[in-house]
Every structure is written in C-alpha cells, then in structure tokens.
UniProtKB/TrEMBL annotation:
Domain of life: Bacteria
Pathway(s) where this gene product acts: Cofactor biosynthesis; tetrahydrofolate biosynthesis; 2-amino-4-hydroxy-6-hydroxymethyl-7,8-dihydropteridine diphosphate from 7,8-dihydroneopterin triphosphate: step 4/4
Protein name per its UniProtKB record: 2-amino-4-hydroxy-6-hydroxymethyldihydropteridine pyrophosphokinase
Function: Catalyzes the transfer of pyrophosphate from adenosine triphosphate (ATP) to 6-hydroxymethyl-7,8-dihydropterin, an enzymatic step in folate biosynthesis pathway.
Pfam families: HPPK
Length: 183
C-alpha cells in the first residue's frame, strides 16, 4: 500500500521543493492534476501549494500543440537524485514515452529547486539551470511563491520580465489539491 501524505518516503528532515509540470497531449490539465496526486499518494512529495494552470506556447520545438503548465511547492525527504528517479517513474507510469527534445509529452515534471541546495550532476542541476529563462515556469512559480529567491535572484522580479509573453491562465480549469489519503 503506498504511503499517504503523512508518510513520506526517505529518511531525514523535510526539504521544501519546487516542481514545474507540463503537458500537451490529451487531457492536459488532468494530466497535471494526476501527476500531482501520484506524487503525493506515493509519498514522494507532500504538496503544499499549486499554481493556476497556464496555457502556453511550445518552447524549443514549436511545431506542436500548446502546453498546459503549472508549478507546485512541496516537501520531501528524498535527496535530489532520489526525487528525480521518483518523478521520472511517475512520468513513465502515466505513459510518457521518449520523444524529441522539448517535443510533445503527456507529462513532464521538472525539479526546480531542492531547498537552498546547489546541486550539479550530469542528470540534474539545481536550481534548474533554465528556470530564469522560461516564462511558463516563472509566472506560475511567482504566483505561489512571490517572495522566493533562488541563487540570489527574485522569482517575482524575473517573472515580471515576461509580462509580454503569450502565457495566460487556463480558462476555468484550475487545479485541485490532490487526494491526501486522509479521511
């Protein structure tokens, strides 16, 4: 039986994390909600805040459908590479298949930060190395964490630079807190 949100995997103290989620295949907003529920229901992350879902233009490889993007804050006991393995497992379990870089995807879960930790590895760099270049991450992250600074940079100030970007809140499809397993 998977642990509920009170039984997080791993050992040690809780660390605040930020996640970026995106989808442009099928029920895009539903895919984001399902990924958050799986992360929480499996004891990977205790979700503490979820941004609105935003409709965004594709980035990198532009010959594809629009994306739904959101950010979430949470707590985990997992170390960065353990968290990466767990988020990758959720992506695979939801049906994500390898495709071209920045191409269409059922779900994409990026770890944006892991506490105040600077982490550099071939598979993962934290804070996320492209975080401050992407409106589809900064705008939702600034919505739920306007006072957050990463590597000495204000997320809110960085998001303001993208005021003219084609990013808009999804019409009325707001995310709902994932099921916590509590009765």
């Amino acid at each position: 039986m998977p642990p509920n949100s009170l039984e997080l995997l791993g050992e040690g103290p809780l660390t605040q994390i930020g996640l970026g989620l995106g989808s442009n295949i099928g029920d895009k907003a539903g895919n984001i909600r399902r990924a958050l529920a799986l992360l929480q229901d499996r004891g990977i992350v205790r979700v503490t805040a979820i941004s609105s879902i935003y409709r965004t233009a594709p980035w990198g490889y532009v010959e594809q459908d629009f994306f739904a993007n959101a950010c979430a804050l949470g707590e985990t006991r997992l170390k960065p590479l353990e968290l990466l393995a767990a988020t990758n497992a959720v992506e695979r379990d939801m049906g994500r298949e390898p495709s071209v870089r920045w191409g269409p995807r059922l779900i994409d879960i990026d770890i944006l930060f892991h506490g105040d930790e600077r982490f550099e590895h071939a598979q993962l760099n934290l804070p996320h190395k492209a975080l401050f270049e992407r409106a589809f991450v900064l705008v939702p992250l600034a919505e739920i964490a306007p006072s957050l600074s990463l590597s000495g940079r204000s997320v809110k100030d960085a998001a303001a630079r993208f005021a003219d970007e084609p990013i808009e809140k999804w019409s009325s499809e707001e995310p709902k807190a994932p099921h916590s397993g509590e009765g």
